[in-house]
Design goal:
The complex is a heterodimer of chains A (252) and B (263).
Chain A: E1 6-17, E2 20-31, E3 35-39, H1 46-53, E4 61-66, E5 69-70, H2 75-80, E6 82-86, H3 97-107, H4 113-123, H5 139-151, E7 157-161, H6 169-186, E8 189-193, H7 197-203, E9 206-211, E10 214-219, H8 221-228, H9 233-241
Parallel strand pairs in A: 3-8, 3-9, 6-7, 7-8
Antiparallel strand pairs in A: 1-2, 1-4, 4-5, 9-10
Chain B: H1 3-19, H2 21-47, H3 58-85, H4 89-93, H5 99-129, H6 140-165, H7 172-180, H8 198-202, H9 205-217, H10 224-255, H11 257-262
Helix pairs in contact in B: 1-5, 2-3, 2-5, 3-5, 3-6, 3-9, 5-6, 6-7, 6-9, 6-10, 9-10
The chains are: A alpha/beta (252), B mainly alpha (263).
Chain lengths: 252, 263
């Protein structure tokens, strides 16, 4: 069945930086079409994990397979079928929105690039900004243009690193709805990190909590709430971040 | 290598240069200023009829050739720095671009810049100083190629050092060419250098180009072996710098340095 196809397979992943353990024996799987939230306090290992999934970083031990391919051996083939967007990474500020998207369309070998860009800028409501320099965009506009870039190649796997960071609630809500809409129509798999628990509750089918480099808990948002006996993911997050009763979980 | 992806990277530089007056000025301004300073110095020296030989005009040729090497090195290094400065490096490295494609695009930008600089400064040298670099004939082609190659591998080494050492190494982008200049026989022959420096000079491909250019402009025969030495050394250094770049890139991937310099 389509739903059973594993898009991400991480097994016994460990990453050390000169003796400091950033990820310790992390294992998990993400299936096709899922939106999975990756949660954890600052320093929990989320960025390290995402960078390993993108091939920006090599693991110390363990295996990472994306779309059935080993990231260490098939990085380019994998990246051709994935994409990434982060609130902390920008497109070149001295190019217009259209120029930036044209450049990345070529880098991703997007067929009929002009039509694809038109579709996306309409979808993300940035068509009126096409001639505007990226440096003059507001945070919300930049986020939406970044998402256009991330959708250019119709990725099978999309990695989103805090896409709604620094956005006001109204724009955050719009962005969430846009992501959901695209996911519904294209059926892509999304791995989503955020400190905004509203994002996670509204979008994610499943959640992983990373704590000190290890997966502390995983399941549907509802399961996580039950495991931690909390009423909101935000309370679970705070509990874990402050070193509360983190043993309460699937293992207990 | 995928030409489509390389063309994407080049398209980005085209947009960048067509939009930025300062970048265009940077490309034209410094070579022209260099040419004017060294050209007028040459003219002044020529007025001291018995103090210097008439072949002193090679200084103008030297500054034109130096700018070919410098531009080629700068194109490789500054293209990489552009991505760091615009916080775009991660977007580039998570796109399906091979390192060889990224480097190839910067090489092509370097080639284009070097051609523009050669054309501009050669014409200006004819107009202002009646100095015709094309008088050296077909030798201009292998000399140009050797200077371009040397700029490329120097750019690759500089970029690798920036990847490894991060922002603190950015100044190397401009420092490395001037570290090489004194020992590359740009403005004076190798024989002028202290004996202990001469082997270092002979290990620089550019040395053979500048020595050859001076000989050609003086109407002396040019030893073809010197050209082959330049090509041989450039080939060796291209391989070495490619290996060094790959090594530094892998170290960066292992230690998370790419993300650190990108953000």
């Amino acid at each position: 069945m389509n739903e059973e196809i594993k898009i991400i397979e991480v097994a016994n992943l460990r990453k050390e930086f000169q003796g400091t353990v950033a990820l310790a024996n992390v294992s998990f799987e993400v299936k096709r079409g899922e939106i999975v939230g990756l949660l954890g306090a600052n320093g929990a290992g989320k960025t390290t994990l995402i960078h390993i999934l993108l091939g920006l970083l090599t693991q110390t031990t363990g295996t990472v397979k994306i779309l059935g391919l080993d990231i260490l051996k098939h990085r380019i083939e994998i990246l051709q079928r994935c994409n990434f967007s982060s609130a902390y990474i920008r497109l070149p500020y001295n190019l217009t929105v259209w120029e930036n998207l044209m450049v990345f369309a070529r880098l991703y070998n997007v067929p009929d690039a002009k039509m694809r860009i038109e579709e996306l800028i309409e979808l993300f409501e940035v068509a009126h900004l096409r001639k505007k320099l990226t440096s003059f965009l507001s945070s919300g506009e930049q986020t939406r243009v970044n998402l256009c870039k991330a959708m250019l190649n119709k990725p099978e796997l999309l990695l989103l690193d805090e896409p709604t960071a620094s956005l006001d609630p109204d724009i955050s809500d719009k962005v969430r709805k846009m992501i959901r809409q695209v996911q519904d129509t294209q059926g892509m798999t999304i791995l989503y990190t955020s400190h905004n628990m509203r994002d996670i509750e509204e979008l994610c089918d499943r959640v992983f909590f990373l704590h000190k480099g290890a997966v502390l808990a995983q399941g549907t948002p509802q399961m996580i709430l039950e495991q931690f006996s909390q009423t909101s993911l935000e309370d679970v997050f705070i509990n874990i971040a402050r070193g509360g009763n983190v043993q309460i979980g699937a293992e207990s | 290598m995928n030409l489509h992806r390389i063309s994407g990277l080049i398209l980005r530089y085209r947009y960048l240069y067509s939009r930025s007056t300062f970048r265009l000025l940077d490309l034209f301004f410094w070579p022209v200023m260099d040419l004017l300073v060294w050209g007028f110095l040459t003219r002044y020296m020529q007025t001291m009829q018995h103090a210097v030989p008439s072949t002193v005009t090679f200084l103008i040729g030297a500054i034109i050739f130096w700018n070919i090497l410098y531009r080629s090195q700068q194109a490789v290094t500054v293209s990489f720095l552009e991505d760091i400065w615009s916080q775009n490096l991660i977007n580039i490295f998570v796109a399906p671009i091979r390192i060889s494609e990224f480097i190839a695009a910067t090489y092509l930008v370097g080639l284009l810049q070097a051609v523009v600089v050669l054309a501009l400064t050669s014409v200006l040298a004819i107009v202002f100083y009646s100095f015709n670099l094309f008088a050296i004939g077909t030798l201009l082609v292998p000399y140009f190629i050797n200077l371009l190659l040397m700029g490329w591998w120097m750019g690759m080494i500089t970029t690798a050092l920036i990847i490894r050492w991060g922002h603190s190494a950015e100044a190397l982008a401009w420092a490395v060419p001037y570290l090489v200049q004194p020992v590359a026989a740009v403005f004076y022959p190798v024989a002028v250098l202290p004996v202990w420096l001469q082997p270092i000079a002979m290990a620089m491909p550019a040395t053979y180009v500048f020595e050859g250019m001076r000989a050609a402009l003086s109407g002396l025969p040019v030893d073809p072996l010197q050209l082959w030495m330049a090509f041989g050394l450039n080939g060796l250094y291209m391989l070495g710098s490619g290996f060094f770049f790959r090594k530094m890139f892998n170290v960066a991937r292992e230690r998370g340095l790419l993300a650190r310099i990108a953000l």
